[in-house]
Amino acid sequence: MKCAILFSGxxxxxxxxxxxxxxxYELTCLITVHSENLDSYMFHxxxxxxxxxxxxxxxxxxxxxKTKGEKEKELEDLERVIKKxxxxxxxxxIVTGALHSVYQAERIQKxxxxxxxxxxxxxxxxxxxxxxEELIENKFEIIITSVxxxxxxxxxxxxxINKEFIEDVREMHEKYKIHPAGEGGxxxxxxxxxxxxxxxxxxxxKNISGENNSWRMEIEVE
Length: 222
Hints:
2 domains; globular; Rossmann fold; four-stranded antiparallel beta sheet
């Protein structure tokens, strides 16, 4: 079955791609939506334009959509870009990295139903700590590109998801109820390397902005 990945460049969509391939799906193209709203309900925004580099090292075409990021209206923009992927690449299925977000999963499913596409959510309701451990076991190299929750701060930007990170997140989850996988937007990520990549991406520049417990890091990679 030919599938298109709703792809942000972060851990969830990239690992979902990996699991889909493991289950026999044919990775046909990636779909990325650039939102003007940095606080979009639907779309990941830090360093989103760097998905072009990830697509290159995955050897997959990238279908790009744009949206102003207005709640609910942005779904019309998502539908258009999914339809474009279906028409251009003949995909039968959309793969998402949804973990627990009913808001996202229900809306994507509705679009897929309308376009007569299967919707596959390989991470759905996966245990968060088992998931983080799997990322490490499967040699995913991932960094944090934004934080938006107390007590996370600028020092978390650029951190790798490793054993130490998991223990720190476990503590934050117990004390402050932060979602261990950042599902509530507490943190967002960028994948520098994984088994789907032909080579590792390197961060060559970064620009950090923010205040208090809301910080983001825009990166340049090669």
